[in-house]
Amino acid sequence: MMRLLIRRACVPLMACAGVVLGAAASAPDLASASVDRLSTPWWKARFEAKQAEIDKGHYDIVWLGDSITQNFEKQGGHAWDDYVPVWNRFYGGRHALNLGFKGDSTCHVLWRLDHGELAFRTPPRLIILLIGANNFGHIHTDAAHTYGGIAHIVDRIHARLPETRILVLGVLPSIRSPWVDENTRTLNAHLSHTLASGRPWVTYQDVGAALMRDGKPDPARFLDPHLVPPDPPLHPAAPSQAEIARMIEPTVNRLLADSAH
Asked: Residue 194 belongs to what domain range?
């Protein structure tokens, strides 16, 4: 039975990148609000499809996040955009589910968690959370507020799934603006030093080195410069996505106590 419970989090106040904001969530507080994107047809269709997968499946690993996670489903014709082999290599035999949604911020993940994305038949053993890049984009919430949103997510998961371990990945480096760079560093430092304190079910790992060269983000390691027209470097290319999976594999293997992949 599909659990699509549709209710709006807030009344319209302003529109931003296709997302309806509301009076209950002013811009500074938006990161910790619960906001849907049901007015975006592809997002609504994907949400419903993922609800059906949750309804009928048993999952040991759940990846939860934005387009970087959704890209694991992308099967391209080049080395830089062929992500499916990466997913199959590391997660294909592990009963894994991809809950990545392009353009989502912490507020959208919170809405999804409130509307069926925690209603598993059996609790996943591990949730891998990668979220926050879009907070520094279209909803423009700073590091402090984005940290609050991520903390709300891990606490929401634990309240519903107390036996599930959570691996939180740091927001990845990008080449967008000095403001984004500064807030990415600040957020990741706060996540590293604070998030797991008092939360033994949370593990934090920074995997930004997969996208760096000589101490700076390397455009060659991103998908976006290959696009026509090119976009600012934000999404890891498939080989960088594979490197991220390799970097976290010892942690995943330890938390699952399964065989290394």
From this structure: 17-256
pLDDT at residue 27, rounded to an integer = 57
Sign of the dihedral through C-alpha 90, 126, 30, 188: negative
Q: Give me the helices (H) in 92-177, please.
A: 106-114, 143-160
| Number of structural domains in the chain | 1
Q: Which residues lie across from 62 on neighbouring strands?
A: 97, 127
- β-pairing, 61-65 vs 202-205, is unpaired
pLDDT at 101: 98
**Is residue 6 domain-resident?**
no
What CATH number corresponds to the domain at position 157? 3.40.50.1110
* φ, ψ for residue 64, nearest 5 deg: -125, 125
Report the C-alpha dihedral over residues 117, 121, 126, 129, rounded to 10 degrees: 0
pLDDT score of 220: 98
pTM equals 0.90
The answer to whether 230 touches 236, Cβ cutoff 8 Å, is no
pLDDT < 50 positions in the chain: 1-26
Residues 92, 156: contact at Cβ < 8 Å? no
Write out the two tokens for 162. 């107390």
b (16+ CB within 10 A) / e for 154-171: bebbbeebeebbbbbbbb
Contacts of 72 (CB under 8 A, 6+ apart): 63, 83, 84, 86, 87, 91, 98, 100, 241
| Nearest Cα residue to 105 out of 66, 68, 143 | 66
Closest CA to 64 of 139, 124, 142, 1: 124
